[in-house]
From TrEMBL:
Organism this protein belongs to: Gracilimonas halophila
Primary location group: membrane
Top-level taxon: Bacteria
Subcellular location: Cell membrane
UniProt region (Disordered), positions on chain: 150-180
Family to which this protein belongs: Belongs to the ExbD/TolR family.
Keyword Metal-binding attributed: no
Record protein name field: ExbD/TolR family protein
Annotated keywords: Cell membrane, Membrane, Protein transport, Transmembrane, Transmembrane helix, Transport
One Pfam family here: ExbD
Amino acid sequence: MLIKKRKREDAEINGSSMADIAFLLLIFFLVTTTINVDTGIGLVLPPPLEDEEPPPIRQRNLMNILVNAEGRILMDEEPYQISEVKNRLIEFIKNPNNDPDLAETPDLAIVSIKTQRETPYRIYVNMLDEVMGAYKELRDEASRANYGVPYGALDEESPQQQQVQDMYPKKISIAEPGDS
């Protein structure tokens, strides 16, 4: 007697719920994914003036910086390379030799940055980094001289940090870009 083998059926995976699983996974990843938002350049704005009219500024205390459409930097109408900006600003703000063409005191020094609409963004950001770097270097120097530690090592909002900030306040004016 011959025993006939039964042919087995192939195993199948039920695919009817695959679309539901894919949809749930898609929703899960959309909900849990964070999207980085470009925050731009972070600057702390000064408090609003109590008076309607801003106080008068002596031309001596104002460093005008223009970054033109070609990416060239003019500081008080003299051309400078980006690498020279920080040292020139430190000299302007500190005025170690009491030069009549530089700021009277660090407290009165104002840096005004103006660009043109066609100015390359990279050059503008590098320029702003140099200005911030000049203030950082001045504050580090003052903190080391007075407290023996760099400015960044001082406790947040401590009297020492406030004193260094008062010695070298960041007075930066960023003007609206001009067409020419």
